[in-house]
Amino acid sequence: MSAAATLKSSVLGYPRVGNQRQLKKLIEGFWAGKVDESALVDGARALRTQHWQLQRSQGIDLIPSGDFTLYDLVLDTSYNFGAIPTRYQTIPAGLPQYFAMARGLQGAAAKGADQIVDVPAMEMKKWFDTNYHYIVPELGPEQTFQLTAEPSLVAHFKEAKALGIHTKPVLIGPVSFLLLAKASGESDFQPLELLPRLLPEYRKLLAQLAEAGATWIQVDEPHLGLDSTPATEAAYKSAYQYLADGLSPSLRLLLTTYFERVDDRMALISKLPVHGLHLDLVRHPQQLPGVLDQLPADWVLSLGVVNGRNIWKTEFATAIDLINQATNRKPLNQLVLATSCSLLHSPYSLEFETKLDSEIKDWLAFANEKLGELATLTAVFNIQQSAEPQPKRQSEVDAALEANKRSFAARRTSARVVNPQVQDRLAKVQPDMVVRPTPFAERYPKQKAHQKLPLFPTTTIGSFPQTKEVRQARLKFKKGELSAEDYRQFLLKETERCVRIQEDIGIDVLVHGEFERNDMVEYFGEKLRGYVFTQNGWVASYGTRCVKPPVIYGDIDRPNPMTVDWSVYAQSLTTKPMKGMLTGPVTCLQWSFVRDDQPRRVTAQQLALAIRDEVDDLEKAGISTIQIDEPAIREGLPLRRTEWEAYLKWAVDAFLLSSCSVQDTTQIHTHMCYSDFNDIFPAIQRMDADVITIENSRSDLKLLRAFDRYGYHNASGPGLYDIHSPRVPTVEEMNERLAALLNYLPFQLIWLNPDCGLKTRDWAEVEASLRNLTATAGEFRRRYADQA
Ligand code: MET
Ligand SMILES: [Zn+2]
């Protein structure tokens, strides 16, 4: 038999939570004491088995192992190498300690233990530019590493092997691991300095994998595509030389990059002693020729042509063109077809979407459908190589290619996607639509007079407690157990109560409370054309938490007002200004699955026009304070600094487009949270919101330094207390905080508010906290009375 050269397929990682979120239920049950450890371990193993078998049944050649975790893979890496911060070291090793690192622990150190502990969780951060959050390793200069006795990576490889499945272990490379870490404490220590201490443990791990029978190892070094420094370059060189020196001859290292291009890093990469390279060709197809030019002749190249982090079908014709560029230069057996990145960021399967419009459903591919795409694409190339003709397979493949072509042709011209009116409006956007006609210094006094605002005005960020009653009513309404009218009456009552309470507390600019909203993006998505919702499109956000992002499939427009009735009703209950509440275009974009057939910039612009219409309608209806939330503006930043400016230009323009049509007396607020905004301060200034309420309470000093460094010329309300904690802040601590702010900001421009929405808190905490907040306002109005 001639060993025909064939193209192999590879998956970089498979979603772990289970198609019915089984893992979430198991783990949360374990935390609640309802599932015991052995049930958790068995359930987790069953899921791994199911996922491996499923990938095998789809014909995937390089099936990942080590992509499964009970919380987070970066945390597992820290844990497996013994990087356990001191505060957790008294907690019994194993799951209690592991979960304490993940989510903190208040109470008994382990089930039935006498020892009582109170430790906060480790920090969580966004995984590159995805909406997944990893647990940030904490490493200090004294850190040593020690590979655990039974690394899960080795155990899982063996587990799959016992099922007859030879997997490709996946590990986070040593350099990226250290670059993902932060210095423990407040020091400036660079965790990368620990590389020499870490490498021997990586070598041990690789030796154990070799002994277990592994061949290809996927070593993820996503940082390779990011901005580099001489120190990081030196780190890659020494790390891979060290690993190569001790490498078992049976192991082959597949250096894996994603989310960025590496063609301009090939001078470095091509010198590393590894056996292959993976490219994200969905993000950067144009990097392929450059990489091929510089790729060592004997390396394997893994072509990431199936998008691991979106929900759209792969266009086969485009992928095949790309693959042909590689097959022209390399033999098939040196090429692999792969997902662009781990499928962790994709929902499971379209088979659970029974309610999705069939036209739109035909354009989509979730994780399992993506496996099928890989199978088809490899077959396209392999069938021709096979010794015997394969007419059946050939006709299947032909049919799949044809169906794919039809699907894309239909999507391109569908009236659901292309809306000529939206296109027309976009073409007519003029530069004067993204600037307020009057400068802040002139409009702000007009707004104060119009709204009769006192010095140190108080407000909140929008949502009030989403109590059990509110959630139950919504659920009943969705299930049809509560009529639309009864549900509406219920919400009107909640709103009224919320307004009365704010008046009673003495807040100056009120909100309606957002009781009608389940989620700040979903609410608007449901009312805009161009959005659809899935039933089961869950993707991991962090730990056991999953989110179900809405899908933007077509040109966006707003058939009807979305919030006007609620705001008008709430305003009718009070003579104080009622703030209208909208979610901004960039946040809608960031928290949705977005179109892959037009730039994000254009989708943001469409969203902005829709929100602009809402702003206009609110203003016409007499609402003269309007908040447009943009908590996600920073997370849209590109991974490479050189691209920040271009992003910030269109992102800020989108906000301006949504907000600039109003009169001088209409006051635009915006709100930001979730990250520190220091490195984008100039862009925030350019948004030119009259008032920005911004999360501050967890990173006080940093934010103030930024105010100091860049100056901020409009009004601002840096959060006076942290809404993430159930604690009621005292008047004294808020007084202190405000006094500190006054060292940096002019008193005439300061607003008093919590640092984010109050929906996760209960009413008792909220009332007490806000009463203290208004007491602080009263105190400072007295102190500044003669300057008012
Ligand atoms: C994540 S920012 C939340 C803003 C929203 N208006 C709220 O108050 O909940
Ligand atoms: Zn917020």
Automatic annotation (TrEMBL):
Pfam families, alphabetized: Meth_synt_1, Meth_synt_2
Domain Cobalamin-independent methionine synthase MetE N-terminal residue range list: 9-328
Top-level EC class: transferase
Keyword Zinc belongs to the record: yes
Protein name in UniProt: 5-methyltetrahydropteroyltriglutamate--homocysteine S-methyltransferase
Family membership: Belongs to the vitamin-B12 independent methionine synthase family.
Gene3D superfamilies: 3.20.20.210
BP terms from Gene Ontology: methionine biosynthetic process; methylation
Domain of life where this protein originates: Eukaryota
Pathway entry: Amino-acid biosynthesis; L-methionine biosynthesis via de novo pathway; L-methionine from L-homocysteine (MetE route): step 1/1
UniProt keyword terms in alphabetical order: Amino-acid biosynthesis, Metal-binding, Methionine biosynthesis, Methyltransferase, Transferase, Zinc
Record domain Cobalamin-independent methionine synthase MetE C-terminal/archaeal: where: 456-778
Binding site for 5-methyltetrahydropteroyltri-L-glutamate: K24, N131, R545, C546, W591
Amino-acid positions noted as binding L-homocysteine in the UniProt annotation, renumbered to this chain: I461, G462, S463, D629
Gene Ontology MF term list: 5-methyltetrahydropteroyltriglutamate-homocysteine S-methyltransferase activity; zinc ion binding
